[in-house]
Amino acid sequence: MAQPKGNKRERERQRVEKAAAKAARRSMRQAESDAPADATPVADQQEVLEQMAELHRRFEAEEIDFDDFAEQKAELTARLVVPDA
């Protein structure tokens, strides 16, 4: 039939503890994701954009083939920092 009030209090205490543990895990993950993933310095964004423009110019002038273009573009794109919206 009806459960004793002690069980209800225990369930509530466990629920609160579980929620606190979840919040702690979430804040730890958030702190880890805010930290830089690697130790490479962030390149000057204007310089990276200029290199990207030069790469496109060289590809359009057929100075480099598509494979080299795609590889170098991927490297430059990885160096770009996109701010959170």
How much beta, percentage-wise? under 5%
Radius of gyration: 26 Å
Category from helices, strands and their pairing: mainly alpha
| Average pLDDT metric | 82
In sequence order, what are the helices and strands, one letter per element?
A: HHH
Query: Count the helices. How many?
Result: 3
- Share in helix: over 70%
pLDDT < 50 runs, ≥5 residues: none
Q: How far apart are the first and last residues' alpha carbons, in Å?
A: 53 Å
Query: Describe the biggest sheet?
Result: none
Shape: rod-shaped
Describe, in plain words, how this protein is organized in 3D:
The chain has 85 residues and is mainly α. It has helices at residues 5-34, 45-60, 66-79. The longest helix has 30 residues, at 5-34. It starts with a helix and ends in a 6-residue tail after the last helix. The model has no long low-confidence stretch (mean pLDDT 82).
Give a nutshell description of this structure.
The chain has 85 residues and is mainly alpha-helical.
Which SSEs are present, and which pair or pack?
Layout: H1 5-34, H2 45-60, H3 66-79
Index terms:
mainly alpha
